[in-house]
Amino acid sequence: MSSEVRGARRGVKGHPKSGPSIGDVARLAGVSSQTVSRVSTGSEPVKAETRERVLDAMRQLGYAPNLAARALRQGNFRSIGLIAHQVIRTGESKTIEAVIEAARLEGYSVSLVDVETPSSSDVSEAVQHLSHQAIDGLIIIRAETATPAALALPPTMPVAVSDSRFIGHHPAVGADQIGGSRAAVQHLLDLGHATVHHIAGPADSGPADLRATAWRQTLTSAGREVQEPFGGDWSAEAGYTIGSEIAQRDDVTAVFAANDEMAAGLIHALHEAGRRVPDDVSVVGFDDIDLAAHLWPPLTTVRQEFHQIGHDLVEVIMRQLGGREQLTGYHGTVPAPLIVRQSTAAPRKRRRTRR
Amino acid sequence: MSSEVRGARRGVKGHPKSGPSIGDVARLAGVSSQTVSRVSTGSEPVKAETRERVLDAMRQLGYAPNLAARALRQGNFRSIGLIAHQVIRTGESKTIEAVIEAARLEGYSVSLVDVETPSSSDVSEAVQHLSHQAIDGLIIIRAETATPAALALPPTMPVAVSDSRFIGHHPAVGADQIGGSRAAVQHLLDLGHATVHHIAGPADSGPADLRATAWRQTLTSAGREVQEPFGGDWSAEAGYTIGSEIAQRDDVTAVFAANDEMAAGLIHALHEAGRRVPDDVSVVGFDDIDLAAHLWPPLTTVRQEFHQIGHDLVEVIMRQLGGREQLTGYHGTVPAPLIVRQSTAAPRKRRRTRR
DNA sequence: ACGCAATCTGTTCACGTAAACATTTTTGGC
DNA sequence: GCCAAAAATGTTTACGTGAACAGATTGCGT
Known about the structure:
Two copies of one chain form a homodimer. The first copy, chain A, is of the alpha/beta class and about 350 residues long. Chain A has helices spanning about 20-30, 35-40, 50-60, 65-75, 90-105, 120-130, 150, 175-190, 205-220, 235-245, 260-270, 305-320, and strands at about 80-85, 110-115, 135-140, 160, 170-175, 195-200, 230, 255, 280-285, 300-305, 330-335, 340. In chain A, helix 8 (about 175-190) runs parallel beside helix 9. Chains A and B meet through helix 4, helix 5, strand 2, helix 10 and helix 11 of A and helix 4, helix 5, strand 2, helix 10 and helix 11 of B.
């Protein structure tokens, strides 16, 4: 395989890469470049015969429109920026999938920036990078370290957010954190538990805060004792550490964990200490990750409809792009139903009959 | 808040959106636009004093370079396309995170196209959409339904692939599927199991095929019986269904599942049927997802270094973009170590002492 | 067959940027 | 202090596209 001749790009003076242009197609088809453009965009009618000739030429040359030129001319990129805190988390990846799907239906692609490292400068750097650039709108799924003020977005940039801390500052879509949390806690109370303990998410997380607040309120309005919540960070590891502590205590019979991973870690620790779930301790999670149904015991949890949320986020962007709707105060809420499985039961040794 | 004046875009004739241009900055700073360009790109030296003046003007106007124009002029987008089969799978999302991180270090952004729906027309549509367009390279993490031929990529497009079916067609980076699988099976044999059963991934998946082959070879070269593998689809649900069947059989003492999710489903079914893990049945997974250590019992599994793989994929793209290296036959392999936890033990009731 | 309208197609131009080339200013060796 | 070399800056131009406008062709009623 001689590798000598290979790599001869285009003409001598031509820029690297770029394939055949609209002009090449026009020449081959014997029409003006504007007509090629019309065929390409479908913006104006072209006589059927002419269109065929142009399409033939396109195929023959392997023409594809140059998106950079198109974006420059039209002032938009048909692309949406996406900021997520951690792609790896079930909630975020499911939402991302849905966003991509919905965006594609609208003819938009998605540019993804993960903001893993939790320094706030990273976040604003990410936004800087995205905001002025090759995107027409910005979806923020979660940005743990950023505040609305820190974003410094250009005022014309459409934004949609699923992180509750941004509600009021930007249009938002999110699961009904409060309703879901309330249902989880109430479920445990209804089973006969005297109170419910809570493993919270990180202090700076909006959703974590909402879940903790709803947990507290539900207990309070039922007249139950409110114990200090345990502080977690969403990870199974944290759940495990906290669980090792809980396993030593006799007074904990029911735990509402702020997400499923922490619930899994908790159950792991309880198993290891010889405490039974749900006989000794009932556990409820949040998210309904795919594995929740296959943990042992299968996990009772609050389901977030991430697919719906992702689609709604894109819709919010599209509404801003289309009409110049003012949506700043918008807040869409998606129901978060409680899914009862086998990690919850009446307290103590009385095995509860499944209903 | 009157909403009447809002939305007055730029000048009467100006295109929508676009902010201040290089020319506006030049005028304000009293230099030529080319000098502003030099400051902006850092391509050529500019006298310190002049640079300051230009930077001031940029700040004052809130200037940000127009990426479309830049891409048009330079012929590249500083963006990498990414095709994944399912963002939700641990392996893929971890790889995606790493790709994004590595790309950002190179000053590239990542455009993500998920190809969830398993019709092959979707895949080629996705590639069509991406390949000719706003990207300079393409990373394919997994494309279950596409074949190398079906991709129809422009020959100049740099590609990097982590799906083994593409090896030989495109430069590839991947975990050492064979070594990892071999270690898993050998581990079980070393514990004293007569043979090892296998829950395979989907038939059309390259990695699934490799793992099954390595499993078979390891058994054969040890002179052990090879049972027909169970056919799964990566999902915990499939693992559960197969597990319900396995739980009925007395002859299965050790199972190597092609991924952790299926292993989780399997364990779930075994628990439910009253079979003990690892006392009655040993289980090994593949991937080492975050939850693997917190399943009950904690799962022995083969770790894939997704982070490394993601970085390597980007490096492969960069090498093609930089020098015009010929990498078609390249195949980088990342070690896949066995992580022994507590889901494996010697067969039958003899409880194994932890080492 | 004529002329007007409607439809289709061609020409010109600007989007914002950076490469290529041209010019000016500074630097340094003697 | 003078001239050549180097450094800094300016001018011109093209990247590929599609809007605006202009011109050509067709259809249709009479």
